[in-house]
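[job 4471] stage=fold_predict status=RUNNING
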Amino acid sequence: MSITRAIILSAGQGSRLLPVTADRPKCLIPFAGKSLIAWQIEALVANGITDIHVVTGFREEMVAAALTDMSGARLTTHFNPFYKVADNLGSCWIVREAMDRDFLILNGDTLVAPGIVARLLARATAPITVTVDVKSAYDADDMKVERDGDRLIAIGKRLTAEQSNAESIGLLAFRGEGPAIFRARVEAMMRTPEGVLNWYLKAINAIAPDGRVGTVSIEGMDWAEVDFPADLAIAGALTQAWADHARTAQSGQ
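[job 4471] inference complete, writing structure tokens
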């Protein structure tokens, strides 16, 4: 069965991008004429995703208004009232009711080409699959991955250089028993004192020893994370190339 549902985690302000995000959330930063979240939705819709759930927080009314102008999928917002004090595990808890079938999760700051979504959908066979890129070295802010073949062994920013042989790009697929496994882990972690302070990938790391987390590599494919000021120019150039390619393809028809 094909996956038709996606969850986008877009509750945060993006404080590391101030002053750009002083009065608008990161997901509404414009790149090549479209907002970050519009690029994300287009990539998902191009791959048959028709049911998209967006977790909002900072300036949620702006996000909701922007989504009304987008088409191609049914868009549902879920407001995270504790976005200022919680990490993204809290956003997953807010939207857990949507985890009742196969779905994708996409971080709100990740720009992906439609081909990346297509590759994940085609190659995700494990209950939980993490999309990864491969580089020669990884820095402190990378969400590093240790893998054995396609199996994910561990994931986290604190993995050592010796452990790290890939990085998560912030796009995951959940199939079969994967949604129930993940939802149960999210609910259990949110019942602990430190629950709201956790990344949702900490839940993936906890599940990994059971052998139910795989990886799909997109090495050499186009994506960008929008997290720091320097990322804005990179994301702008990438999306402009996508826009130019689309125009060229359209004119050639």
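[job 4471] summary: The chain is about 30% helix and 25% strand.
[job 4471] exit 0
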